[in-house]
């Protein structure tokens, strides 16, 4: 019932996540932030089983901060994604696997923007656009249709709005609002929260 | 209990039963169950003095367990050691919300075991310290135990660091203590309702966490009518044995929670007066107990402000029900009289 989406442009990555924290049939919170800041230019979007999300994401977050403290510089998005995947893989065949689905978005000085898709079976793939959740079934075709590798920021936000409109129309679960953030060479920027229309 | 630990008092039979908790990579350095050293000395720099005998999620490969088991138990049945005499049920209605006058915590008092009312007068809201109260739902025994463990750890923190742990910190501590039991039958859903008295750490998951500030203990609670920094003032955090940890303005937990939400969502506003807030909480619990079979009997109400918690006298909901009935018949009667008068005049 949760939704994550990421769109990579030529010099930015746009990411959005829904804001609902649910427990069986109830919305416990409608302003939950599912994005974790791993470093100045890396965001981890994390959904999945109730406790595992925060636990795993914070574990990765603290480890990356420790790396920065020890070595004086931050890990690149690619290295961070691979580190995350390795941790997921290590726990996968233990007695306590983490059931989390992730999107890692970041901007690297040398490689530029990057969006990495990871799932709970610890697969990792760098992708131009990606989504998680039931909403992904509804929106991936829209992303396929309208995505261009050189899309501008406005076009990316419009594409995101199209996806959210589709969810509002066809998804049986009501996801009233979405946190939207953009990463570029200046860092992480908060964009205006997108609501699905019906207040 | 907490003082024992500070003094390093070692109770040797307990020590012998220690198992290494293999999940906790961060506490791995703090114990060695075969060492005879005082646990207090060993963890001089560490906070995690959680007694190891609590961490007994069954480890199928752990040698001590196997040695202990008799021939009646087959090794594969480690996880089910005792058959439950009655079906576990999580029937309850608890709620908490923040408003301008502080935090209200309310709960019913019925403990159900399947279809039986095991006890009609249970305390589901427990004070942990002067400014923190915990409402519990889930398995009664688990909640009682974990509340006690939490109180112990908070007190230990207070003795060691000479300041109160923030509510967010308490919630995180509880969440981390419950994590090894995820996937087992431990069922605990606690709502921490409290008032943060002094500026603590920012515990937002989004902001990079700075190392803990040197605790400048400002005890002037009276100056804070309304918190200027986000870390002071009323707090409401829901912690669950699944691992969920949510901070919010209103939470209701238990089988009666949907009914309670129905009442709360309609009438809850920030600028309620204390009387209005109390009556709203009572109404919400009352309506939930009316519809939910597993909630009922009485309602307990706590109000937490900057001065601490205060408990309202426990009220029987049977009386409330009859009062409600009377009110309805009265309004129906009045309306009938009005229509008659209107028809005449």
Automatic annotation (TrEMBL), chain A:
Hydrolase in keyword set: yes
State where it is primarily located: cytoplasm
| UniProt-annotated location(s) | Cytoplasm; Nucleus
Tell me the superkingdom of the source: Eukaryota
A Gene Ontology MF term for this entry?
Answer: hydrolase activity
CDD domains assigned: proteasome_beta_type_2 (cd03758)
Q: Which GO terms describe its cellular component?
A: cytoplasm; nucleus; proteasome core complex
An example GO biological process term is: proteasomal protein catabolic process
* Statement: the UniProt record of this protein carries the keyword Nucleus: yes
Q: Which keywords does UniProt give here?
A: Cytoplasm, Hydrolase, Nucleus, Proteasome
Family annotation (Pfam families): Proteasome
Q: Which family does it belong to?
A: Belongs to the peptidase T1B family.
Quote the subunit structure annotation: Component of the proteasome complex.
Function per UniProt:
Component of the proteasome, a multicatalytic proteinase complex which is characterized by its ability to cleave peptides with Arg, Phe, Tyr, Leu, and Glu adjacent to the leaving group at neutral or slightly basic pH. The proteasome has an ATP-dependent proteolytic activity.
Q: What is this protein called?
A: Proteasome subunit beta
This chain's source organism reads Chionodraco hamatus
Q: Identify the gene encoding this protein.
A: psmb2
TrEMBL record, chain B:
What Gene3D superfamilies is this protein classified in? Glutamine Phosphoribosylpyrophosphate, subunit 1, domain 1
Query: PROSITE patterns under this entry?
Result: PROTEASOME_BETA_1, PROTEASOME_BETA_2
Question: What is the protein's name according to its record?
Answer: Proteasome subunit beta
Q: Which Pfam families match?
A: Proteasome
Q: Which SUPFAM superfamilies match?
A: N-terminal nucleophile aminohydrolases (Ntn hydrolases) (SSF56235)
Its annotated compartments are: Nucleus
Q: Which CDD domains does this chain map to?
A: proteasome_beta_type_5
